[in-house]
Amino acid sequence: MWELNKQYSFVRQGIQYIIYSIVILLIIGYWSEEFYAIFGKNNYVSIHLLMEILIIVVTMTIAIQSWLTTPYILSNKTLYIGALFLTCSFIEVAHALAYKGMPFFITESSSYAATWFYIIGRLVLSCGILGIFCLKEKPIQKNTYRWFIYSTPLFVIVALLMLIYAPNPVLPPLVIDGVGPTTLKTSLQYVAIVCHLVIMYILITKINNAPKIIFLLLGSSIYLIISDILFTIYRDVYDIKNFLGHIFQLSSFYLLFKAVYFSSIEKPFRELLEMQKHLEKSREKMHHMAYHNEVTNLPNERFLMESLQKNLYKTKGNKAILALEIERFSAIKASLGSSYADKLLSMVAQRLKDSLPEKYLLSMQREDCFIVFLDEAKSTQQIMQLCKQLQVAMLESFQIQHFSLNGNLNIGISLFPTDAYKEEELVRYAVYAMHEASKVPSRILFYETSMSSEITEKLILENDLHHAIDNNELLLEYQPQVDLQTGQILSVEALVRWQHPRKGIISPGVFIPIAEESGIIIPIGQWVLETACQQVKEWERAGLPPIKVAVNLSLGQLFQQNIVEMIQHVLEQIELDPQYLQLEITESMTINIDHMTMILHQLKALGVTIAVDDFGTGYSSLSYLKDFPIDCLKIDRSFVQKIQSDETDKALVDMILSMAKHLRLKVVAEGIEEVEQLNYLLAGHCETVQGFLFSKPLHPSSLQENYQMLQHNAQNILEQLHV
Ligand code: C2E
Ligand code: CA
Ligand code: CA
Questions:
Q1: Which range is least confidently modeled, 60-74, 316-330, 571-585?
Q2: pLDDT digits (tens, 9 = 90+) for 150-160
Q3: What is the pTM of this model?
Q4: What residues pack around ion ligand 3 (CB closer than 5 A)?
Q5: Confidence band (pLDDT; 50, 70, 90) for 106?
Q6: Which atom of ligand 1 is nearest to the CA of 634?
Q7: Tens of pLDDT along 673-698?
């Protein structure tokens, strides 16, 4: 409000001026007779000269100011205004010199010449301003153009001198001595007034563009119109209205001068100041951004490192670094998108801030890892206790719209000076320990030297994995799935292997997580799908009975932009009937049920079938079962393997079997190694099994060659059981 008041203080000032003017006009109008010739008739020539000098000074100043500022402002309008005022200034000089009563100058002074100079000056000014207003603002480039424009006033004044001082007067008189102005003068004066009214109208329509400048211009126009009116109604030069007309004309030019000054000097200067302020602010903002994480607003890695440099050695004693990550954060990000992930991060950040004592520095490393610096770590027990406290603080799940997300923390700890002296190493070691922490039940681990070599190993593998497809190092093995009714092998699961040039065969359990983390899973997944589908066609060509292939899908793959199109394209290209492809998804993909449901329906529409892998090991509630268009559940081998020993696992398997029956889903039991396990599953009416008891995953050619034998073996095993 105050700002607004300040900004528009000129409005108040303007109104004051208008009131003063009206009062003066009223006084003069009422007592004009009393004021007649008040300064003494002999003094009028000098008084007029004095006022003219002032008017010339003001007009000349405007011209000079425009001349000086155009090289910087480069505006055509400012240039033209300057030239216009230079013209007016020249005409005013001629008018002043020709004024009746002035000494001889070139020719005798006369009201004929003086009035013509005056009226032409007046019209030039009004029409000039109107013309300039109607122009478009354009930048001027050449300096010669500036010189050219500023030389035109000279031509104008020379032409006028020639016209008005022509030996035989060409123009009719405008004032008749003793009578006053003629109708022609009054009419021309009205033309000037009309011009100014038009100017005022244009100004009012543009008032929002530059209120202050326009206000000044409006004031100037009003004063000029008042002076025009006074000049049309005065009786003779001694009339106070004539004097007052000059005063208003002078005031009008002064306001114009102010407007030009404001637009060419004051406004740009203020804008410059404003810009500087902005710059200062954005510098501060940039500094903040350089040292803080955008999502959580916590100090970032740079901040942490600088503060560690300052504080690690400042005081004696043990210190510690905690690295914290949200469990399964990348899965959450992949399935819900970054905006949910960011929201979760900032909520976790807030909860961590609330739970940590203020003296500890909480910061963010990269986009998903929190780092806490404990500048006094008395004992490992104390650190452990703090970590547990943080985990407990996260127990209550985070509600983000209709998702309820867990913020379980994996925490790694490195100690100063036991583990390392340097800040980068301390942080890196804490992060190593954090990655390992997900494998222990407490999910808290102190750094150990062996972790470094493991991580380095992983990084090397990741690097090698980038070239695995191009170097033809990947291959698929196929594990038969046996139909327990007939003993036939109607389906297989495709399992990828990596033939590493130096390290030999690497199991997918090792490299698939690396591929998922690094995004290489997308091309690998596509390669697996194409290869498996082609294999099915090949077996068909080789005369094997129709075989369905099950392909594992990773979370990252499923949420890739065009998964449905990709699968459709592969099927079409290979010309494989979609019923021979089954996609295996895992329960961890159920975080974003809505999105998943949509994708699964699209996949189903292609004609492929869908199985839920490792069923029962996930965290999710089973409510998704009713929404997802699923065909098959795969009982995880960890349950199967403990059927004989563990009553709970036994109960779980029973439950899955009966649930599948109710939901009319097929069941594949995985990891059957022993006949007892098979027996139990047979009794529970499980339909299909897969496991080393029947066959290990096989090379495709080996499966093709031994197909009959494998099937025969399977039937034998089953027959023995039935007996
Ligand atoms: P999974 O999908 O649960 O695959 C079954 C795993 O159990 C395979 O391990 C298989 O060799 C093993 N297995 C089968 N029968 C038995 C048995 O009787 N006893 C025992 N102990 N194990 C048995 P593998 O081939 O090492 O694959 C491990 C995991 O790697 C797979 O688990 C799957 O999650 C992933 N994986 C394999 N291939 C791919 C792939 O092409 N894409 C993706 N995304 N993941 C894959
Ligand atoms: Ca599988
Ligand atoms: Ca499995």
A1: 60-74
A2: 999 999 999 99
A3: 0.60
A4: 613-614, 670
A5: confident
A6: 3
A7: 999 999 999 999 899 999 999 999 99
Cα 426-429-435 angle, rounded to 5 deg: 145
Q: Which of 283, 289, 312, 314 is nearest to 302 (CA)?
A: 289
* Of the ranges 22-26, 111-115, 525-529, 679-683, the best mean pLDDT one: 525-529
Fold type of domain 43-275? Rhopdopsin 7-helix transmembrane proteins (1.20.1070)
Nearest CA, atom 43, ligand 1: 552
Compute the distance between CA of residue 334 and CA of residue 620 in angstroms, rounded to an integer: 16
Domain 301-449 class? alpha beta
The residue to mutate among 522, 552, 681, having the most atoms of ligand 1 within 8 angstroms of its beta carbon, is 552
Distance in angstroms (rounded) separating the CA atoms of residues 198 and 191: 11
Identify the pLDDT of residue 411: 97
Give ranges for CATH 3.30.70.270 in the chain. 301-449
SS3 for 585? Answer: strand
Residue 214 CB neighbours (<10 A) = 19
Domain with CATH 1.20.1070 in the chain: 43-275
Q: Which amino acid is at 231?
A: F
Residues flanking ligand 1, CB < 6 Å: 479, 494-496, 507-509, 512, 528, 552, 554, 613-614, 637, 670-673, 690-692, 697
Rounded to the nearest angstrom, the distance between the alpha carbon of 552 and the centre of ligand 1 is: 9
